[in-house]
Amino acid sequence: MAQIQNPILKGFNPDPSIVRVGEEYYIAVSTFEWFPGITVYRSRNLRDWEFAAAPLNDDQKLDLRGIDTACGIWAPNLTYDNGRFYLIYTIVYTNRSRFKDTHNFLVTAEHIEGPWSDPVFLNCSGFDPSLFHDGDRKWLVNMTIDHRMDRARFSGVDIQEYDEMGNCLKGPVYRIFRGSPIGKTEGPNMMKRGGYYYLICAEGGTEFGHCVTVARSRNITGPYEVDPQNPMLTSKADDDYPIQRAGHGQLVQTADGSWYMAHLCSRPVDGCSILGRETALQNIRWTEDGWFCLAGGGRLPFGEAKMDAELELLTKAENASDKVEKQGTVLCASGNMAEDFNSPSLPWQFLTLRESAAHCGLDLNSRPGWLRIHGGNSLSSKYRQAFTARRQQAFSYDAVTKVDFCPGDYHHMAGLVCYYNYDNYFYLKITRDEELGRCIQITSVINREVEDSPCVSVPDKGDLYLKAKVRRGELTFFYSTDGENYEAAGNVLDMHGLSDERVNGNGFAGAMVGIGCQDLQGNGVWADFDWFLYEEI
Ligand code: 6LW
């Protein structure tokens, strides 16, 4: 009998929206300032997931230039009706003081791979909207924001009908829910079963008080009653539990009638979510009084789900951190990659910041078999980043790359980056120093505090090899001139700094690792990367 080990989507894969179409399941996750927007995964057994699509992959249709970190694409909602996928998402342009500018859009496609329609603008009423198909009517279900100081900022859930022919919202807006006493109501999605409309929301905030709240009504417009057992899922009661921050869920039913919930979670290292928010799956059971709960009982997320709902076989996540380590490595081996840059496009794992790879100076044509990165702005910029990175998906990994780069002076840099956002990264770079010539240096930026390690001189010519060795909370950078003998490039660095909890402002992403090149004087400099290896330990 197949077992599903949580999380099913490791590393930065938050705010899951799950849907089944025939024998296939799809999950869409948030991507914030990363491009292409929204990653969609596919599975046939709920356990093994593969990349399916990145629907927002056109600079003409998605412009994130200049947006702040943790803004951008929030909480997609993927549904399917009558032969068509519907993907709803928010572009958060502003999230400052009391204000959020949240523009909501819909794109549709017959096939998950596309082509996807042009975005249809819906409204700006809040974030996390979803679409509910109720027979031949469609409803936009959305949380709302109230910026006034004397009101709850997350002010409830509205619904409004969506007119598919007219490509617009129509008719009255109904405030159907004001949230449970837990508050911070967000991520609403709706389903219907046994004559009830069920409204499933995230509450408590996406940090350690996160949960799933359920309310139901006989009428779509309400009134909604909150589940007396609410919340049906949370890790809040147990700080030491290895799967934390459980919330933001959506149900899916298998072809044979079993129910599961996909939800957000994190596996902190010493209280820090370095891996960001991940996606887990739970067995769900319906109760006699028409509510639903975790099939194994209680509210704590399980470390494993079964492919059928045999309760005694469900296991709670173990507390020991070595078990967590095991979950993060043995069962996440699929994260490994050895990319030789021989194919004409970048592998899907590599994301770029705010713009497409082509707009970020990434070039697979000029030197066949190498990725040329034409130098861009500093890593602290919100524009024109010449940088690409992939998700860190395990607690411990090695990342290695081979670089051909000849910096003209200290304004020219290229190398390997462990990156959280523009204010938080560790950069092992090749640059040039007036006295030492070509050199290796580590620049650490943590909440905008910059530290440079002493430069280490390297031969003026020849390829260099750069390595990041991450072991849970520790990062050590190495360099080599022959790919065999590596020297440490500086002191051990504190990876906890690249976590949701340590970064200033909203920590919504997760640690990434990647390669880039900066040309701070616009001299037309580039760096060539022969390969990139990411190996989980
Ligand atoms: C997301 C909201 C949430 O839109 O965090 O955990 C916000 N829940 O639903 C950012 O991911």
Structure description:
This protein has one helix and 41 strands. With 537 residues, the chain is mostly beta strands. The protein folds into two domains: 1-321, Tachylectin-2, Chain A; 335-534, Jelly Rolls (Sandwich). Strands 4, 26, 29, 31, 32, 33, 34, 35 and 40 form a nine-stranded antiparallel beta sheet that branches. Strands 25, 27, 28, 30, 36, 37, 38, 39 and 41 form a nine-stranded antiparallel beta sheet that branches. Strand 15 (186-193) and strand 16 form a beta hairpin. The structure holds (Z)-L-Arabinonhydroximo-1,4-lactone (6LW). (Z)-L-Arabinonhydroximo-1,4-lactone binds at residues 14-15, 30, 74-75, 127-128, 186-187, 202, 206, 247-248, 264, 508. Residues 339-535 form the Beta-xylosidase C-terminal Concanavalin A-like domain. Belongs to the glycosyl hydrolase 43 family. GO terms for molecular function: xylan 1,4-beta-xylosidase activity.
First-residue to last-residue Cα separation: 27 Å
Which regions have little confidence, pLDDT < 50, spanning 5+ residues? 309-313, 319-333
Each distinct ligand: (Z)-L-Arabinonhydroximo-1,4-lactone
| Percent helix range | under 10%
| Global Rg | 23 Å
Q: What's the number of helices? A: 1
Instruction: Work out the number of β strands.
Output: 41
Structural class: mainly beta
Indicate the overall shape.
globular
Tell me the strand percentage band: over 45%
| Relevant CATH superfamily of the largest domain | Glycosyl hydrolase domain, family 43
CATH topology of the largest domain: Tachylectin-2, Chain A
Number of domains: 2
The CATH architecture of the largest domain is 5 Propeller
Specify the biggest β-sheet. 9 strands, antiparallel
Integer average pLDDT: 94
GO biological process, one term: carbohydrate metabolic process
Family: Belongs to the glycosyl hydrolase 43 family.
Keywords: Glycosidase, Hydrolase
Enzyme class: hydrolase
